[in-house]
Write a structure and sequence with these properties.
Blueprint (H helix, E strand, L loop, with lengths): L2 E7 L2 H17 L5 E4 L6 H9 L9 E4 L1 E3 L9 H4 L1 H7 L6 E2 L7 H17 L4 E6 L13 H6 L5 E5 L5 E5 L1 H4 L2 E8 L5 H8 L6 H5 L5 E7 H4 L4
Parallel strand pairs: 1-10, 2-3, 2-6, 3-5, 6-9, 9-10
Antiparallel strand pairs: 4-8, 7-8
Helix pairs in contact: 1-2, 2-4
């Protein structure tokens, strides 16, 4: 079972400022390998802030995504599109931005993403900071149900049918086990129950089940999300 280290911030602004600092440091760290970005609204202010004053990225920095919806790459619903202010500012070579190629058929997009993740790890690239969201019902990445976790066995990326009717490609617990610094970043009153379940190590919570291969996990939350937790 991972060690869960919670960190509570008085305001969402304080959470965003700390995330901005952590992300900038991970990008510039001399021996940085890859970082994993998550979707959702919570990390977007940090992406924009780092993009406004980008650090010089480490020589071999690569960026991957916890998941992405199966929509065009320029769609506002795309996690890749939402992160463009950061990615454009960093100016990384195209091959070091591992996005989900949603121009491919869904199954091929998932297989292509898995191949590139496999290649990243086979090349000896470490994945340092990895950001994760936490859904109201307890999902993370685009892993929503026990059936998703079952299909993910032995895989590093899978296609998923989301409850909102959209398809997606998601990383899996097997990929998350390679992330050295996984950090759940959570804000807002709507996330209170999910945060409480995570803090309680609820085995039925998909997000907690997804990180069982990690040695330690951080949970960064604002007071609104943490209000019902101890």
């Amino acid at each position: 079972m991972p060690t869960l280290n919670p960190r509570r911030f008085a305001t969402r602004a304080a959470l965003e400022a700390a995330l901005t600092e952590r992300l900038a440091a991970a990008i510039a760290a001399p021996h940085s390998g890859a970082i994993m970005l998550s979707g959702g609204s919570t990390p977007l202010p940090a992406y924009r802030a780092v993009g406004t004053r980008p650090p010089v990225p480490a020589a071999q920095l690569a960026v991957l995504f916890s998941d992405d919806r199966y929509v065009p790459a320029d769609s506002p619903s795309s996690n890749y599109c939402q992160s463009r202010p950061l990615l454009d500012a960093l100016g990384l070579p195209q091959e070091r931005v591992l996005r989900v190629r949603t121009e491919l058929p869904l199954a091929e997009a998932a297989a292509d993403y898995e191949r590139r993740l496999d290649g990243l790890l086979a090349a000896g690239m470490r994945i340092g900071l990895g950001l994760l969201g936490l859904g109201v019902e307890g999902h993370t990445a685009s892993l929503f149900a026990a059936a998703d976790l079952e299909r993910a066995r032995g895989r590093r990326a899978i296609p998923v049918q989301r409850p909102d009717g959209l398809s997606a490609v998601s990383v899996t617990p097997e990929l998350l086990a390679h992330v050295e610094e996984p950090v759940f970043v959570v804000a807002g009153r709507a996330k209170r129950a999910a945060v409480a379940a995570l803090l309680a190590h609820d085995p039925q919570l998909i997000a907690w089940a997804a990180v069982q291969g990690c040695a330690r996990v951080e949970l960064w939350m604002d007071d609104a999300a943490a209000a019902s937790s101890s």
